[in-house]
User: Which sequence fits this backbone?
């Protein structure tokens, strides 16, 4: 079949066009409500990692001041 966006010949069972990335069918999976949940999850992970990094940096700074 042909890509409806760029017209490139692609496999009949292809989900997206390999050339331009346009989906060959309407997206069925992602409902609009699923996105904020995932974003909040990543935000939580980012905050956790940021906290760990800040803690490690503080610890490192403490060690450096102890050494010098
Ligand atoms: Zn295409």
Assistant:
């Amino acid at each position: 079949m042909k890509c409806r966006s760029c017209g490139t010949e692609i496999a009949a069972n292809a989900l997206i066009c390999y050339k331009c990335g346009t989906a060959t069918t309407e997206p069925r999976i992602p409902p609009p409500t699923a996105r904020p949940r995932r974003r909040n999850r990543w935000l939580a992970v980012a905050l956790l990692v940021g906290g760990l990094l800040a803690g490690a940096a503080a610890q490192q700074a403490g060690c450096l001041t102890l050494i010098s």
In short: The chain has one helix and no strands.
